[in-house]
Protein 1
Amino acid sequence: FEAFAQADSSTTRRFGGTGLGLTISNKLLSLMGSHLQLTSVENQGSTFFFDVLFRAEPGEPINCEVIIGLSRVLIVDDNATNRLIVQNMLNLKAIASDQASNGIEALEKLKRAPIYDLVLMDYHMPYMDGIETIRQIRRTLNYSADQLPIILLGSSADDAYVEAVCHTLSVQQYLIKPIKIQQFFQAIAQIRQPQSLSVPLPDPVVPATPLVGEHTVLIVEDNSVNMMLASAILRSVSPTINLLTAQNGREGVDVFIRSKPDLILMDIQMPVMNGYEATAAIRALDTGLTVPIIALTAGIMKSERERCLNAGMNDYITKPVVKDTIARILHQWLPVLEATAPPEPAQPTPALPMNAHFDEEELRTRVGGDKAFMTELLSEVNDYLASFPAELHHHRARRDWPEVKAVAHKLKGSALNLSFGILATLASEVEQLASAGKDDARIAELESALKAEIELLQTLI
């Protein structure tokens, strides 16, 4: 228990470490009126333990949730300890479970095993991560959310990409590790109750009737693909709308001063001046106090919404943008709108085979079935994709991690909007590694994987 003391002090000792772990732990316990204790038997092992007295939380005890409709669960996690912990939690509710140590094994079990009532899916796994495994479950094995509910287990509360993908892949819940038993039981008890999902769902759909009148909308967005998609959706909802664009927050403020738009769609992450800063600058103007400002963000956590509202924005739209959401925003925030007679309902488009690389059906739905625009959009993005590998390699060779992160973030946003699932996953991992400034072999592997994926996508689009 002494600082820097080790059982084996020889130069050939097998185990490393500084000898501070027990000392620090003991000092922390001393602040809570306790201390570490030890029982040890040679060749049998040691047990370190402590007792701490806590005050009880005021209020009535929390009743355990009643869980119905779950008889067998598949646990997918590469960490054996994590699987065991979750299995023991399920055992307390007499729920049987099977285990898989990676995504590939999980898919094999789902192909041949009895139908499961729920899948608990870890996010970070080798070979195939949790998101890609869920994508294969939904689109290759064709399990719908009703047939097979899924809870994703992650280690980061602010991973906007994961939250956004949860919408796309119909993931019922996203729980942050370490999982608390009460939180876990509440989550699985609600799994058959769609109204209780912890991942926020889009706002109720307002019929996308065309809007008439001279309205001016400013889109502030640095991603050209996202800009093009948002512009086309706006025009499909309101054919007479006057669109203004800006590629960063500073440009957005300047355009607002000159043109006084009726509504602003404001991206959050942008160069020069971000969305929060641009909103503050507009609100500081006498003419900018009342204009509706709608955030465009990939984050859908409650904290993200609160931050947007606290920054002076009126509402927010989560990416990828869909037509019904844009229609709701325009109906809600543009002044004095008159709707024309509702258009004839479109004939349902025949279902296309699902593809993990490019979900054409999903993109068609997002653009409201406009085939001509969809062709134009994919043609536009083709040039961007062709130039991306060289741009990424240039910044990585210079070890310019902020630029690597920026270009990866931009690619991820475009890929999500265009339903390029695997490309979005690869770009997200590059962004995360660049954020940590990691120059390891994994980034080089991802660079090659991105190039190959882009070449494949170019043949598909």
Protein 2
Amino acid sequence: MKRFIAPFLLSVFFTLNLFAQNTVTVQTDSGKFIINKNIYGHFSEHLGHCIYDGIYVGDKNKDIPNTNGIRNDVADALKKLKVPLLRWPGGCFADTYHWKDGVGPKDKRASIVNQWWGGITEDNSFGTHEFLNFCKMIGAEPYISGNVGSGTVKEMTDWVNYVNGAPAASPMSKWRVENGQKEPWTVKYWGIGNEAWGCGGTMTPEYYANIFRQYATYLTDVNNTRIFRIASGAGGDDTQWTEVLMKNIPLGMLQGIGVHHYAVINWDHKGSATNFTEKEYYTTMREALRMDDIISHHSAIMDKYDPQKKVALGVDEWGAWYDVEPGTNGGFLYQQNTMRDAVLAGATLNIFNNHCERVRMANLAQIVNVLQAVILTNKEKIILTPTYHVMEMYNVHQDATMLPVKVETENYVFENGELPAISASASKDKNGITHISLTNVDASKAKEVTIELKGGNYKKVSGRILTSDKLQNFNSFDAPDKIEPANFNAQIKDNKILIKIPAFSVVVLNLQ
């Protein structure tokens, strides 16, 4: 008998131990902080085909259905995505953009050369009116990045008065009315420059802190619109930049501070977006998961000067950055989007959710046709990328109460390195539904996970999964639905859920 009992007991032990190695514990009755919907924001820059041919095809285009030049298919997809916040016009482009060139009759607008991205000539047919009306069309709050690098304080204050002023309050608001927009748009979010340490002026943090104070002095509330001033923050883990800004800018002037972080294999050789090895996948995910430490380090600095966490940390540029697709303009940053990007997006959003006490804004770079885009277009065709589907699955977290999670996970081991395989975040929405999002970063191994629910009593669970049979798979214009969410079956018993998550997959569970 012993020869039969021992293997059986060993099997039982091994099975239980396998579940125990991956445990997600959710404190369902301990939520304190709201996951600000603006964490799910996006970024649109005058770069490549993000604006022109992506969002905007011109109001005289008869081949692609549009409303005042805005692609209807793109707008409809973004409505479903529930885009809460959209940053524009850059990026590096912002600090060369003079907004007055982009208003008024289109046939009289000055053309400009996009010196940052491809050296192409733009006719300014997409300007302030077009952007703000697009935001209204898709239900997103606008986030305008002002020109500090080559602009002036007056230029930006004129912009604020133009978009926010009462119809007859100032010359700028009167000009807006003359240009066809009577009612103000009430734009709340304003970035004072972009990457001031680099393309925004190559400034020192001390110099930029003084420049910010100058601009903030004159960027005042207009027509009962409370201005939310966002400082140009650090690149990656440059906490010295954050230290100087938090030390030298009065808190009353500062509502948000940014940070930018891209998951890049190597800045000189970024690698293919689709034809990549597991080593390149591992390196990309390692860089993406650094986001947790980057946020923690900046938050610790901010806590010294702002213990009440009044100032938001905004990750207003994030995502994966690869080499451009073969045969495309190197300055257009057009790349495909695979399951690697889906896992990266899910893991990153979990990090943001879990840091929502301080992180209250984030902007994926970029929304259409650039970098880790959620939408790709080609003339009349459109693709919803794997990243789109993850952000659509995760939008259940928007403005929900974050629930603390504890994750005990096996590691994804590759060569001499290792990363935590399972990441998770959880929330409870206003209807009392609990949502748990999970990613399995491991490139080859499925993970069995035990979810323990503390402090609640749950009877029903449903779910969705984004997965594929190959890490390098993507949606193409010939096969636009190759990767899309599917139902995920799970069962709950005694407030425990046992699930198996395939390699490189993303799962969202809904519990009642």
Protein 3
Amino acid sequence: MIETTLGIDTGTNSLGISVIDNTNQKILYSGVRIFQEGVLKETIGQGDKEESRNAKRRGCRQIRRQYFRKRLRKAKLLEVLIENEMCPLSIEEVKIWKNWDTQKKSDGRMFPSSSQFIEWLRMNPYELRAKALLEDLTRMELGRVFYHLIQRRGFQTGRKNKDTGTIFKGKEGMMGIDNTNLLIQNKTLGTALYEIMPKENEPYQDLAHRVRARYTLRKMYIEEFDKIWARQAPHLGLEAQTASLRRSILLSGTDQSVRREKRLQNLATVYGAENVDVHGNQITIRKEISLKELLGGNIRYVNDQIEYKSSNSVLFWQRPLRSQKNLLSKCVFEGRRFYDKIQGKWIISGPTPAPISHPLFEEFRAWQFINNITYGTGKPLEPEQKKAVFELMCSEKKDFKFSKIAKKLSINTPFNYDEETSVSACKTIAHLNALFVNNKPMLEKH
């Protein structure tokens, strides 16, 4: 019987293979398979800056989606404005622009171009936004202000550290949020921008006096909307105005699914059973809400700080991030592969592996790394030393350098890891540990 060894050398665009006969000490086969690299040639070897060959296509697709979603938001707002006599358009004109005609295709989707609507758009929105806090506006003028707010909604971030980064400090050709806050002070964003806006026949001055080319936050627009509504709604009769909200939800699972039944019970509790219609897997929800909530969401002040929920807002609703759970592959140990005759393809079913953010996986990864640490002549860490390193990894909320572990252990002899080696922190565990009084690691190895 011949004993052989297979050697494989992987590269960015090649695969080296060698088969060695260990019994007779000779090479049975060796060769290289060359294939096209998956990244652009000029970016190979640049680490995180390597660019996929599909990046340009993906970027164009993202832009198309952004244009599509902006058009839907504007069309929805125009429909609400038309119902409340705040826009000189008809619903039919909006539908032509909003809906896709399978016969006319792109030629049939035309932006409204009636003379009255063009004159409505020509009104200076910055002037109206400043005027709205001091004088009475007509419904048409207020509608023009709202249409401008949906065009310039500002940036909404979920980051906890909100005072650093490019959007706050600015960059070449763009003013940062810090500069805009200094400009606003005790005014609204619209008023501040109108004051620095060059008046008719006046020359352009500098970047600091531009109403565009500057970063803004969603919060600035919501605060301005709330103040404008408080000033204009009473005399226009909009304070007690209500609107009908309709939402469609697509359910997954069978009719006997426990999760589906709980979802239906929750919707019936929140909206009322008479306002929830079920048609197969599609649910239609009806609810009467105030016109202000429909336009701007639920706005309130807590300790002089504005808080808002925009789930029902036409102006400020933010689409949640798409779930990435479907990208998890099936477990290689418990997955089952079978051929589906109906679909005509192989299918792998079974449980999915734990996400990398799961506390159990973080614990597994941490102990896997700790058990591989050696120092001196290959001496492993003592149990107490391992526990100290684990506590350190569970206290860090960001990846850190191995030098921090060496400092924690106070060992002068060299380790098998370089001091600049990046160590994966247990980020989820670290955030959960902050919820406990004793601040001890949530997971410990026994």
